[in-house]
Design goal:
Helix content is 46%, strand content 19%. With 180 residues, the chain is α+β, with helices and mostly antiparallel strands. The protein has one domain (3-178). The protein has a four-stranded antiparallel sheet with strand order 1-2-4-3, with helices on one face. It starts with a helix and ends with a helix.
Length: 180
């Protein structure tokens, strides 16, 4: 894997509560709305692509897929990453966070939940160096946010509190989110 892409994957994996993370590139520039019902495109951000009547010219989707631990740390990681994506989007970054799962068939129900950060990159020149520089900047921003907000410490402290808390509202919320 290219070093700057690996940096983004490593930054995601450094969030306590994130169990797996991968970074993938999808060329969505040529996708049409009729393509979106086909199985190979099921995990793409369908609503966004439908809204723009398919992919935009010269557009790539950088998909950061991740799974969470099934406890308090996973929930706190999701809360942090949800804020991070929201804050970046408010600042103009074309990104969103979505959940993904397979159909609720008995043998797989409760086992397929995963999340994806969709980050759209558009470059009329399709310059790979420009893309890698942007990916590296995204990784640097995540690393800086993790450090600035002491997320490792906060998640570990939150998980420890949850393990010893008598606040049943918090525990009930956690059990409801991760019951399976």
């Amino acid at each position: 894997m290219v070093e700057r892409v690996q940096r983004l994957s490593n930054a995601m994996m450094s969030v306590p509560g994130v169990r797996t993370a991968s970074v993938n590139k999808h060329d969505v520039a040529e996708l049409t709305v009729s393509d979106l019902s086909l199985p190979p495109y099921a995990d793409l951000p369908l609503a966004v692509l439908r809204r723009s009547d398919g992919g935009l010219p010269c557009e790539l989707l950088i998909a950061i897929e991740f799974e969470l631990d099934g406890g308090t740390a996973g929930l706190l990681a999701l809360e942090f990453l949800s804020w991070w994506v929201r804050d970046a989007a408010r600042g103009g970054a074309p990104m969103q966070l979505r959940s993904l799962a397979l159909p609720p068939l008995e043998q797989q129900f409760g086992q397929t939940l995963r999340f994806q950060i969709d980050w759209f990159h558009s470059d009329p020149e399709q310059d790979i160096e420009r893309l890698l520089t942007a990916v590296d900047a995204l990784a640097a921003d995540l690393e800086a946010s993790l450090e600035h907000y002491a997320i490792e410490r906060q998640i570990k402290a939150g998980a420890a509190r949850a393990a010893h808390t008598t606040d049943t509202r918090f525990l009930t919320r956690l059990r409801g989110l991760f019951a399976g």
